Amino acid sequence: MYIDGQRILDLPIPEDRFAGGETIRSYLKTTLLALLREGHSFSGKRPLGNSDRDGVLHMALLDADLVDAGEKDEFGDYPRYREAIDYLNGLMAIAIEALCDRPVRS
Predict the structure, then answer these.
(1) Helix (H, G, I), strand (E, B) or coil at 12
(2) Cβ–Cβ under 8 Å, residues 70 and 80
C-alpha cells in the first residue's frame, strides 16, 4: 500500500497529547527549530519538555487508522501498539523524507 508522506505530515496531533504543534509537520518543525535555537542544551530525550515524542507521533498515525493496532481501549491505548512500532517508525521515516523533499521558500 502506498502512503503519501505529505498526507502523514498533515495528520493532526491528538488533542490529549502535548505536541508543540497541531500537525505532525508542525511538531517536527517546532522540534527542529528548538534544536537550532537551543544548541547543546537541546534535550533529545525531552524535546519541547516532553519525553513522549514517539507516543505523540505514533498516536497521530494510529488515530488516522494507518496502522492496525487494535481498537483503542478506555484509557486511550492500543492493545497491539508495541507490535506496530517498527511500522509506525517506517511511516515517520516516509514523512521525514517528504518534509525534506519539499522545495524551500526563499
Answers:
(1) strand
(2) yes
Distances (CA, A) of 105 to 11, 55, 80, 102: 22, 30, 40, 9
pTM for the structure as a whole: 0.78
Q: What is the pLDDT along the chain (106 residues), one digit of tens a residue?
A: 678 899 999 999 877 665 555 899 988 888 888 888 888 887 766 665 565 566 788 889 999 999 889 999 998 889 999 999 999 999 999 999 998 875 656 5
Q: Which three cell numbers stand for residue 100?
A: 525534506
Round to whole Å and give the CA distance between 91 and 60: 11
Distance (Å, rounded) from C-alpha 55 to C-alpha 71? 16
Q: Which residues pair with 23 in a beta bridge?
A: 12
DSSP SS3 for 99: helix
